Amino acid sequence: MQAKAARGPIFLPLLVAALGVALLLENFLLLGDFRISALLPLVLVALGAWILIRGDLGTRTARTFGITRGSVQSGTLEISAGEVDVIIGGGARDGRLVEGQFARSSRPSLDVEATHAHLQFLRSRTPWLSFADWQMRLADDLPWDVLISTSIGQINADLGGLIVQGVTLASGVGDIRLVSPSEAFDPVRVRSAAGDIHVIVPEGQAARVHVKPTRLFRVRVNETRYRVLEPGIYEAIKANDESPRVDIYLRGTFGDAYLS
Questions:
Q1: Rounded to two decimals, what is the model's pTM?
Q2: H helix and E strand count, the chain
Q3: Residue 1 falls within a domain, yes or no?
Q4: Same domain for 129 and 183?
Q5: Has residue 2 been placed in a domain?
Q6: Which of 112, 153, 232, 255 has the most CB atoms within 10 Å of its CB?
Q7: Are strands 86-90 and 134-138 parallel, antiparallel or unpaired?
């Protein structure tokens, strides 16, 4: 595995150093009647803003990586991202099993048994101040078992062109976007407690989406792309005869499901 860490943050060390100098001056009564503690709310606001900006921009606190494929013929991708956004898709370069961007100072866990690789990306093993998006490109000529969960992060899973054993996407608070895989041996399952679910089925792909609307979780369907087989089951139209059918199950509590 090859990895390259981005340049570390400099704002937080400078802020801490400045605060330490000010406290030292206050201890020696060199600041007169000024109380440095009055600046603590401002420091907290600045720190919170810095964390949010770093989390949105992300790339400066990220670590690029690449894992060679070797003799691997199948893979399991397990991601538990917490509050971090996750973006995955196919298109890894030749000879790579997976490549992309992970948290700084961190490495994914890799276990290989025979010709099967099990990859784990766990938020609990990354710096808590690292909020950069996790981005991954997978080898698209082998079957994957994909398991992704977030607590308040978003999931963008473009599985178009991939063959999967199964897929489970789960978000606590956050939207989920899924592009249907080309083939799935087991059902694709997507659930969100609070957030919208967007499902895109490529033209020509055979797929059925199973979802039951509720008062708080509505279904919005592009009627030019789907027909209703029965209440709660939507089938993609104009599918190619040779396309294997993918079954997608959606479940949500608060939000909307969009089928396009």
A1: 0.78
A2: 2, 20
A3: no
A4: yes
A5: no
A6: 153
A7: parallel
Residue labelled with tokens 């949010």? 52
Burial class (CB in 10 A: 0-12, 13-18, 19+), 103: buried
Range of the domain at 20: 7-57
Residue 107: pLDDT band (50, 70, 90) is: confident
CA-to-CA distance for 99 and 171, rounded, in angstroms? Answer: 23
How does pLDDT run across 193-203, given as a tens digit for each residue?
999 999 999 99
pLDDT above 70 covers what percent of the chain?
77
- Residue 98: which H helix or E strand, with range? strand 96-103
In this predicted structure, what is the pLDDT of residue 127? Answer: 84
User: What's the pLDDT at 52?
Assistant: 59
164 vs 235: CA distance, rounded Å: 20
The first and second tokens of residue 247, run together, are: 């079954």
State residue 13's pLDDT score.
Answer: 60
Is pLDDT at 31 greater than 60 in this prediction?
no
Query: Does one domain contain both 16 and 91?
Result: no
In our burial notation (b when 16+ CB lie closer than 10 A, e otherwise), range 13-41 reads: eeeeeeeeebeeeeeeeeeeeeebeeeee
Rounded distance between C-alpha atoms, residue 131 and residue 59, angstroms: 9
Of residues 106, 114, 72, 112, the one with CA closest to residue 92? 72
